[in-house]
Design goal:
The protein is mostly beta strands. Helices cover about 0% and strands about 55% of the residues. It has strands at about 1-5, 10, 15-25, 35-40, 45-50, 55-60, 65-70, 75-80, 90-100, 100-105, 110-115. Strands 2, 4, 5, 6, 9, 10 and 11 form a seven-stranded mixed beta sheet that branches. Strand 5 and strand 6 form a beta hairpin. The chain is globular, with a radius of gyration of 13 Å.
Length: about 120
């Protein structure tokens, strides 16, 4: 399974951050849970949310009010939207899945929130 994040590296405060994870090697509708995770500079990893193979979504209670995860099954992609961003949302954003007891990660993408 391979995952690849894509999206803008710079977002202005108050705007919506939108990232896409493109998956190859497995279908996002067949198995597993597909997650978004981020790591701010100098801080630990934070789980943001996930979308299951069924399409059910799960969100961190700390980010739920600003987070939306969706998918495009025709492209085998799932997308993160984070609204009303502030500089505190600056982080490396990664997509991830766990398949057959193995974690698969995208390479991560740096997103900076600045005007």
């Amino acid at each position: 399974v391979q995952l690849q994040e894509s999206g803008p590296g710079l977002v202005k405060p108050s705007q919506t951050l939108s990232l896409t994870c493109t998956v190859s090697g497995d279908s996002i509708t067949t198995n597993y849970y597909w997650s978004w995770i981020r790591q701010p500079p100098g801080k630990g990893v934070e789980w943001m949310g996930a979308i299951a193979y069924s399409g059910t979504t799960y969100y961190s209670p700390f980010l739920k009010s600003r987070t939306s995860i969706s998918r495009d099954t025709s492209k085998n992609q799932f997308t993160l939207q984070l609204s009303s961003v502030t500089p505190e949302d600056t982080a490396v954003y990664l997509c991830k899945t766990r398949a057959d007891s193995t974690d698969y990660w995208g390479q991560g993408t740096q997103v900076t929130v600045a005007s």
